[in-house]
Amino acid sequence: MRIFIDGHTFHYEMENLVRLFYPNEKITVTEGSETEPEKPYILTKMTKSDDKYILSASVHFDDFEKFKSTDIGIDDKELEKNSERELAVILYELLCEYTGKKQPWGILTGVRPIKLFRRLSEQNGSEYAKQYFEQKLLVSEAKTELSATTEINERKILSLNRPDSFSLYISVPFCPTRCSYCSFVSQTIEKARKLVEPYFELLCSEIKYTGEIVKAKKLRLETVYIGGGTPTTLSAEQLSLLIEVIRKSFDMSLCREFTIEAGRPDTITEEKLVSILNGGVDRISINPQTLNDDVLNVIGRKHSSEQTINAYKMAEGIGFRHINMDLIAGLPTDTPDSFINTLDTICELSPASITVHTLALKRSSRLTLEGRGVTTENGDYAARMLEYCEKKLTESRYHPYYLYRQTRMEGNLENVGWSKEGFDSLYNVYVMDETHTIIGCGAGAVTKLKVPHGETITRIFNYKYPYEYINGFDEMLKRKEQVKEFYDELS
């Protein structure tokens, strides 16, 4: 499908809007217009008259051709923003009419709707933000209410931030097997076993080096998050050493939260859990994704639902108070009834927090490469699953505390973190809101240097794959010098 862009610069916005309705199609964006182009195509246009701009959109399919237009005053104080939004609205209305489907998040295509909701609330109050979401962005009433509730809960966490605050992310990019939906750079232990030890040694070196920079700049560590991959593919001894290196390299006296993704139940042992707990980690995540063994097999997981429950009970028995569990709505072959059974069983375990993701079909995942696409039926299933989540988790005294979205999600839905009172994950809020600097160590990690009280972010990328990380380690340490330069300029 082709999108013609004539007289405006909203290429990215128009393409992403069309992708909401056609997530599996190849879309080409072309400047200007053509005479009688081949169908299907979409034309978006902005032309200037004496006192206004005319915005128009037309869709041209084999059995459907329709045109819509609106106008905006030439003296509009926010001309570019409002022109983009108005043009998106009329194109959205045409696509809704043709497909017979409305999007739960309206014309919103961004990752961070809560950040936008907060900005609108701070400017004109929460009621204005709700009206803007529903009337100007065409977000459904249900998603608007979810945004409002989540924003209130996030606000308490964001108030803890200071100009010198930062969080630390550590990447352990190895997994027992690669899940069919995964697009991360993590590698299976079977294929990368020889890389684990040299990678681990260099990771510890990078952490020490980074700690020296942070101490010199007198930054305040708020949270630590060890993710992956599956960090518990490391041995108990390696986990103990990793935590020890972090504690010796950084001032942990003011750290509010220390998380490790214990991850997949088939990597969790009592010895590893004891090492993690004794190291002072106060939050772990055990990620079943589903408690349907047939679905686990389909997605490439080599563990059972019984192992998940046993791992949870083991962690609880050892003494972990904050255990998070991750679920995914919309997995292949899963049904609403099966998902309901999963969630009900998880709620019986009563973890401190539950994160509910919607399946996102990334282009490099095995599911996508095998031809699986985003479909209306799968999207409807996922929507029913999330509706049940909101009802069940609210009844079970969980509240939504952070929310984000991704491209090519089933049903164009969202990911939501739910927690009991006092168990919100600070790191999750900080990283999604882009509140303060995130310093990353390890393969695939990205350092995001945030200007206090501003929106500017400077990114420093580590090498993606473990072998690249090992071979290019010296070069990567040189990149870390940008952290010094960034804070020198601020001071």
What do these coordinates show?
- By secondary structure, this protein is of the alpha/beta class.
- The chain has two domains: 1-101, Double Stranded RNA Binding Domain (2-Layer Sandwich); 160-482, pyruvate-formate lyase- activating enzyme, CATH 3.80.30.
- 44% of the residues lie in helices and 23% in strands.
- It is built from 16 helices and 18 strands.
- The protein has helices at residues 11-21, 79-99, 113-124, 126-136, 141-158, 189-216, 236-249, 270-278, 293-298, 305-318, 336-349, 366-369, 376-395, 426-433, 466-471, 473-490; strands at residues 2-6, 28-31, 41-48, 52-61, 64-73, 165-172, 174-175, 187-188, 220-228, 257-263, 283-289, 322-329, 353-358, 399-404, 415-419, 437-441, 446-450, 457-461.
- α4 (126-136) packs antiparallel against α5 and α7 (236-249) packs parallel to α8 (270-278).
Task: Report a brief summary of the structure.
About 45% of the residues lie in helices and about 25% in strands. With about 500 residues, it is an alpha/beta fold.
Tell me the radius of gyration: 24 Å
CATH architectural arrangement of the largest domain = Alpha-Beta Horseshoe
Q: Strand order across the biggest sheet?
A: 14-15-13-12-11-10-9-6-16
For the record, the CATH class of the largest domain is Alpha Beta
How many angstroms separate the termini? 50 Å
